Amino acid sequence: MKPTENELREMLRQALPPVQPDHAVDLWPRMLRRLDERNTRIGWADRILLLLISLGLILFPAIIPQLLYQL
Fold it and tell me: What is the distance between the alpha carbons of residues 42 and 17, in angstroms, rounded to a whole number?
């Protein structure tokens, strides 16, 4: 026996509880706190990359106009 559309809807309502959205929690204050706690550190790989780029610009200054043209 095949269930009717109304029976299917009722079975789905019984099987899946209604979703209660949690709108009472405001996430923005927590986000601001987390941004304030965040430490801005430069990792060793970033330092090496910055050093290599600086060294390349010092050794090859003719590259600077070409790089600026690409912007």
Answer: 48
Least confident of 6-10, 16-20, 23-27, 45-49: 23-27
Half-sphere exposure (Cβ direction) of 54: Cα atoms closer than 13 Å: 6
pLDDT at 71: 84
pTM over 0.90: no
d(CA 37, CA 18): 37
Q: What is the DSSP string of the chain?
A: -PPPHHHHHHHHHHHSPPP---TT---HHHHHHHHHH------HHHHHHHHHHHHHHHH-TTHHHHHHHH-
Contact 63, 57 (CB under 8 A): yes
